[in-house]
Input
Amino acid sequence: MAYSKINQPKISDVIMGQLEQMILEGSLQPGQKLPPERELALQFEVSRPSLREAIQKLEAKGLLLRRQGGGTYVKEQLWQSLADPIVELMNSDSESQYDLLEFRHATEGMMAYFAALRGTDADMQNIKRMIMEVDAAAEIDLQAEAIVRFYRAIAEASHNVAMLHLVLSLSPVLHKNVAQNLELLNRREEASAMANDHRLALLAAIVRRDPEAAREASNEHLSYIEEVMLSVREEDSRLQRSLRRLKSGV
Output
């Protein structure tokens, strides 16, 4: 009887696969610095030459970037090709904000559902920390950053890598959308408080592991933001018409 030779995988390929999986699942995020080579070799229990070969292969694939004397990083531009054109579009077309809200209805509701269904205790603690950062942020830009991190924590808790990387890829777009929404909400005395209550309701539904309530809370929050946005812009439109009439003497 003829037996086939069993080929053992190269150690460097095994290391490369593990690092790729860590990038895919979000354990290693864009811009994050890897531990020093010696420390990483100890963690993997491999030789430094094997580790170095794996890193070189990931560099060639465009996933890692080595800086001379400054360490090795996950490339920040992993998501740039998707995000940049949308950012440019939204800078020139305010109507695209409504499209993004519709998109968020579908995706964030789904992420909230699966976060409540699959989230671990560690995930729940992370989401709670993120909502505390939202409460602590004073300026609009800082608050927008904190809210995006809150949604990223929900995406991580969903344990769906496609959802997580969708949030990572669209972070610049989400930040811009959230910041603009916060500016509109701040024009209504009660609106900001209501939006905060909605986020707390979303958090509560996820933490008590109620998927349907989590999805409903997410959708209710985004529907309210859209309602405020439409109302404020209608007011602006009426004001502009009044100003034009005054100028024309009508």
